[in-house]
């Protein structure tokens, strides 16, 4: 038996730490909090590319698109390793023997593509200092909430979300990991005025992937043939990615992600919230949403 396999077995036996702790008023896992100084002092480079999102907003999808662009549509190269090894998740700390995002990022040769769910005010300052390019993807609140709820049910490193009713309340109050969705999307929206940030919408990516991938190409100053572009659209479609073990997170042990509860890639369709929200929940949510999103030019579509 390989050492890695033995380590995975040990991992399966130990309950994971789901404790949370606030950092600057934002709820985080205790493991992130314990490593916060190191994360905050991370040294970005000018040629780094950061993919930033709120949780469950199309992060993995965007990572795959970017990887295929960087590898000019070479599928073999894009399947060289798991998403989380190709693009380190900056603040995420995994139980040993798995690699933590920060360690992976520090060891990775340039140019690096990294991932974060951090709200804008908590991004390590070196990203601003180095003027690193950032792609931010935003998804409408209701679908983000539903996807985050199902993800919290199957991810054993996250706190138990309770019932959907309870999770809706926590989400509205910003009492979930990585903080308030409202503050997150608005904070990054405002930051794009001063920094090289490409701000994309999940719903636009679903409706017209070609158009949105072309925006990414332009932002990355890349030029690809129509043939490669179509190949990227096909291989990063939900159905194809769902079957790709290097992108669908099925290589992690069930003690971390339990796909029998809910698959990591579940539906990926705007408007799924309608299958979950009651009329009363929807009305309450809409009322609260209006207050929290008042005064911003940022608008979302809740279906396409």
TrEMBL record:
UniProt cross-references to SUPFAM superfamilies, sorted A to Z: P-loop containing nucleoside triphosphate hydrolases
UniProt GO molecular function: sulfotransferase activity
Keyword entries, A-Z: Cytoplasm, Transferase
Record-listed E.C. numbers: 2.8.2.-
GO annotation, cellular component aspect: cytoplasm
Family, per entry: Belongs to the sulfotransferase 1 family.
This protein's name: Sulfotransferase
Naturally occurring in which organism (per UniProt): Vombatus ursinus
Gene giving rise to this polypeptide: LOC114046263
């Amino acid at each position: 038996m390989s050492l890695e396999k033995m380590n995975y077995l040990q991992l399966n036996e130990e309950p994971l730490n789901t404790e949370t702790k606030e950092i600057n008023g934002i709820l985080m896992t205790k493991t992130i909090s314990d490593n916060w100084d190191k994360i905050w002092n991370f040294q970005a480079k000018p040629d780094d590319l950061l993919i930033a999102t709120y949780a469950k907003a199309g992060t993995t999808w965007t990572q795959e698109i970017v990887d295929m662009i960087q590898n000019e549509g070479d599928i073999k190269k894009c399947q060289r390793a798991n998403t989380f090894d190709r693009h380190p998740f900056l603040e995420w700390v995994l139980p040993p023997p798995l690699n933590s995002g920060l360690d992976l990022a520090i060891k990775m040769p340039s140019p690096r593509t990294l991932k974060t769910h951090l709200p804008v005010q908590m991004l390590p300052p070196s990203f601003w200092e180095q003027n690193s390019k950032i792609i931010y993807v935003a998804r409408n609140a209701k679908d983000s909430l539903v996807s985050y709820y199902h993800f919290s049910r199957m991810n054993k490193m996250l706190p138990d979300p309770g019932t959907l009713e309870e999770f809706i309340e926590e989400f509205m109050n910003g009492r979930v990991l990585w903080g308030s969705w409202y503050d997150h999307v608005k904070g990054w929206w405002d930051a794009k005025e001063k920094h090289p940030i490409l701000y994309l919408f999940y719903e636009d990516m679903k409706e017209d992937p070609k158009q949105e991938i072309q925006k990414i190409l332009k932002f990355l100053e890349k030029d690809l043939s129509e043939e490669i572009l179509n190949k990227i659209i096909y291989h990063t479609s939900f159905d194809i990615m769902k079957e790709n073990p290097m992108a669908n997170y099925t290589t992690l042990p069930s003690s971390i992600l339990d796909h029998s509860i809910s698959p990591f890639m579940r539906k990926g369709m705007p408007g799924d919230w309608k299958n979950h929200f009651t009329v009363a929940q929807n009305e309450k949510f809409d009322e609260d949403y209006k207050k929290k999103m008042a005064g911003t030019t940022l608008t979302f579509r809740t279906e396409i």
